[in-house]
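Q: Hi! First time doing this. I have a protein sequence and I read that you can turn it into a structure. Is that right? Here it is:
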Amino acid sequence: MTLIVAGHLPNTLFNSGLFVIADSAITSGSTTLLNGFRKIYPLPIKVWKPSFLHETFRGYRDVLFEIEGFVAFSGNTLTSQHYMNAITEHLGALRVTSRKHSIPLTYRLAWLCEENPIFEANTFWDEETFAQADMDGLLTPEFIVETVSHALNAAIRSAREYKLNKEQFQSLLNQILVGFPDPNRASLRQIYHLYRFDMLPQHGLDGVFEVSVVAKRIEYNEVAVLGLQGRYGSQAQAVRSALSPKADTAQAMWKFTMEAIAECHSAGDKSVALPMVWYELDSSTPRLHAVKKYPLQRDQNVETT
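A: Yes, that's right. Below is the predicted 3D structure, encoded as structure tokens:
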């Protein structure tokens, strides 16, 4: 099991961002198999622009636009790795293209896995097409969320090609957390977006269970809890709601997560474990960075201050 808590940092005149805190246990039931396992990763988001020699398309050679977000996971480790690979492959290879046979020519972003009209043989492009102004603003928060949902559905479909027993089907029902800066925000205070993606079972044709991907936006005054959400989700939100607007939200959630791990251990539940880590994605730097890590030696108790 996992305990991940994430939310928005307090907005100030010159700073804003996201925090994400996670334990590091790999477990079987309520037993810890190992700790120190990373559950939060950087998420490169890249838009590639087409290159031309006169009127002939010559491939996608240059990055037009790039930002970095993060992805975190709760659930089966191997399945989560498959999900994260699908997400990073899709978001790292977004391509500027045009809508097929559109008159006048209109532009959009294409996924690596979909049909792209720019590759059609014997097609020539006017040198005035794909100007910078045509490509600006194509990457939106909504398209990033759509891409993550598409990538997760594609990963689920690849697993569902095989007959799965009940336990194997349950391994598909993970939770993914994705955070990223707004790609079209050009002000001193950047806006950040945080989404939780749940894989939920639903009845398909002939009574066969399918997996539905549901995206939920985490608002500024909310926190997302993954893993032990049923046990600690409402408690974490109560702590967040009680904070003043200028309070250090991340520090409060760090303390809450540490106390939750201590509570689990005192009850004999080793489904979460130290070390725990705290990362932030904020306007002080374009990269995900570690803020704090709390290691636990084998003979130590969990501290809560």
